[in-house]
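Let's inspect a concrete specimen:
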Amino acid sequence: MRDPRPAAPPPAGILDAIKAVAWSFFGVRAGRARERDFTRLNPVHVIIAGLAMALLFVLTLVAIVHAVAG
């Protein structure tokens, strides 16, 4: 007999978290994709990816300022 419940989607990896955070930095995440992310992504992966990308963004800005001002 088949199970009437739908199969749970496979858990997303760190790469999926990085993609979701990158799209959120630009503010262009479709509603359906956002819903899918909420059900699949590990919150710890999202936090780590967000912190790493924010640090990369700040370091990029610092490098640009040093290149222009120096």
Q: What stands out?
A: The chain is about 70% helix and 0% strand. The CA atoms of residues 5 and 34 lie 22 Å apart. The chain has one domain: 14-69. The chain has a mean pLDDT of 86.
